[in-house]
Design goal:
heterodimer; A: mainly alpha; 3 helices; B: 16 helices
């Protein structure tokens, strides 16, 4: 199945990627080439086959119910969390105004 | 003193422990090689000579104080710039993470420092580990130290995505480096540059602190110049980590101490589906040679059947982009990394502008494909079907293990190619991973070892694939090949 320019533009918008006209020109045929190639998977008879959910079967662990049990993943590190923020303000992440 | 940069992991560690040279001398020698190759090879994004010296001095002091030394004590290594390094820029080869300085250290790199290794710098890679030639990095192409012997001097691809790692190890800028492998990113660059590299069973090495690409496939592993060096370094990298929900809660075997190249009683499977139409005759010949070497090591060779092999690559190019589109949603210009804020932009505009400016074309391509195959109405036809095919690929391997203990195959369909040759044709580039992707999809260990040079004077690799958790079997067969191949070629220094 081939997708049109409007579909690629819609997907780009869903993925929050701004694509200008030139980029769309390049991406549409590449996108269709890749899709046409992966569509060979349709030949495979997968009736009765379960989709893989874990490549190595494992039970999901629960951590101990202790606050900050591992300091590397615990809380109380606001300054570290903000250290790489492009626009930190008053201990928060700064963003453009979202409410009129 | 002989050239310390010709030594590998074990020789350096043992030489430091025996007092034949100091760790500081080793670090100084490699620091000099890193600095001298900066412009020509572009293998490092950031060099950290002071970190290498600090770690070396600690090892020398520990030795003087007669403290026990770690498995990597005194060995300076390169760190793929996909591992978070506390206080050192970590970019994943992207513009969107330029100037990102982690406040924490990845589990795998911390384990290596705890074992006494030191960091020479952060190695270049394909952007977000997406590529097979190291041409998608925002920080420029890595150039392979190898050249064809035709005298043309065309710059060649070091492979990807761990292309900085492979080039640096082959060029003696470091004795070993970390790599990560999602669909072949350790094995393919190792094969292209005449070095060894192993991707362990999924879950052996913690993913905590590794920039995520496709989480159900990503695995870290070592790249070095010998099988034994890989075994030593993998032992230092592996182990259970409660911070990674898919980390294997299993003891780490003593792989290096248990190496054994005698394959008597072992069966080596040769998958007929890997012998594809139009196969490069030199690759086919190298594979046949590998079969003869493993027979010579005592193994019995059996034909096996992996019927879904041809579907592994297209399934991968649904699964990996789907996971990438989800993982890379985190780059939004809010919490860290690049922010692009056009005049009068709202929040949504900022997201889209930031991601447009920060991601390269290959990353955008994969995000778009991934978003599409996960979108309403297409999810079952693409993603669910790919995950069913993934089950069948794994089942193929499970059935093969009834007949064999390890599998031998080529690592790549060709030797290295000139930079620029495939960069405009994404599908041609993807086909580089046709032999490496099936093991990734099945989560099983696989390694590449150097087999020899082709008629152009370029390295070729052989791939050993093993059962889940059987890194030992893979390393042992790799060692048997290594001993018989006697690969000692190294690129002639031109940089």
């Amino acid at each position: 199945m081939s997708v049109d320019r409007a579909t690629v533009a819609k997907i780009a918008s869903l993925a929050r990627l701004k694509l200008d006209e030139d980029a769309l020109d390049r991406m549409v045929p590449e996108f269709n080439n890749i899709l046409a190639w992966v569509e060979q998977l349709g030949e495979v008879d997968t009736s009765g086959v379960e989709p893989m959910t874990a490549v190595i079967p494992q039970a999901l662990r629960l951590r101990d119910d202790v606050v900050d049990a591992d300091p590397l993943t615990g809380g109380g590190i606001r300054d570290k969390v903000l250290a790489n923020a492009p626009a930190p303000e008053h201990g928060f992440f700064g963003v453009p105004k979202v409410i009129e | 003193m002989s050239d310390l940069t010709q030594l590998g992991v074990k020789a350096i560690r043992d030489g430091v422990a025996a007092g034949e040279f100091t760790a500081r001398e080793v670090a100084e020698a490699f620091n000099a090689n890193v600095a001298a190759a900066k412009e020509a090879l572009n293998a490092f994004i950031v060099a950290t000579p002071e970190k290498a010296l600090e770690a070396a001095s600690r090892v020398d002091a520990d030795r003087a104080a007669r403290k026990p030394l770690g498995a990597m004590a005194g060995v300076p290594i390169g760190m793929k710039d996909l591992f978070a390094s506390k206080g050192v820029q970590t970019t994943a080869g992207s513009h969107i993470l330029e100037h990102f300085i982690p406040e924490y250290e990845s589990t795998v790199s911390q384990k290596l420092w705890d074992a006494g290794a030191g960091m020479l710098g952060k190695l270049n890679l394909d952007q977000f580990a997406m590529g097979s030639s190291n041409e998608t990095s925002y920080y420029g192409n890595v150039v392979s130290p190898w050249r064809r012997k035709d005298g043309g001097n065309a710059p060649l691809a070091p492979g990807g995505s761990s292309g900085g790692s492979s080039a640096a190890v082959a060029a003696r800028l470091c004795p070993a480096a970390t790599g990560t492998d999602t669909g072949g990113s350790i094995r393919q660059p190792a094969a292209f540059t005449g070095i060894a590299g192993i991707k362990p069973t999924y879950g052996r090495c913690s993913r905590w602190g590794i920039v995520a690409f496709a989480s159900s496939l990503d695995q870290a592993g070592p790249m070095a110049r010998s099988v034994e060096d890989c075994a030593i370094m993998l032992g230092a990298m592996a182990g259970f980590d409660p911070k990674d929900s898919t980390s294997l809660d299993l003891p780490v075997p003593d792989w290096a101490g248990s190496l054994d190249a005698n394959l008597k009683g072992k069966r080596v499977g040769i998958p007929r589906e890997y012998r594809m139409d139009g196969m490069d005759p030199e690759i086919a010949a190298s594979w046949d040679q590998g079969v003869a070497w493993l027979k010579d090591a005592g193994a019995e060779v059996v034909d096996i059947h992996l019927p879904h092999t041809k579907y592994a690559l297209p399934a991968y190019y649904i699964v990996a982009p789907a996971e990438a589109s989800s993982n890379l949603a985190r780059y939004d210009g809010v919490r860290y990394g690049l922010r692009e804020l056009p005049d009068h932009a709202n929040l949504q505009d900022m997201y889209a502008a930031t991601r447009a400016a920060g991601f390269g074309d290959e990353v955008k391509r994969r995000i778009l494909i991934g978003t599409y195959v996960l979108s309403a109405g297409f999810y079952d036809a693409y993603y669910t079907q790919a995950m069913k095919v993934r089950t069948l690929i794994q089942r193929d391997f499970d059935e093969a293990w009834a007949k064999c203990d390890v599998i031998l195959a080529p690592t790549t369909p060709t030797a290295s190619f000139p930079l620029g040759d495939k960069v405009d044709d994404p599908l041609a580039m993807y086909l580089n991973d046709v032999f490496s992707v099936p093991a990734s999809m099945a989560g099983i260990p696989a390694m590449s070892v150097p087999a020899g040079l082709n008629s152009e004077g370029l390295p070729l690799g052989l791939q050993v694939i093993g059962k889940p958790f059987d890194e030992q079997g893979v390393l042992n067969a790799g060692l048997a090949i290594e001993q018989r191949a006697g690969f000692s070629a190294q690129p002639e220094k031109w940089w």
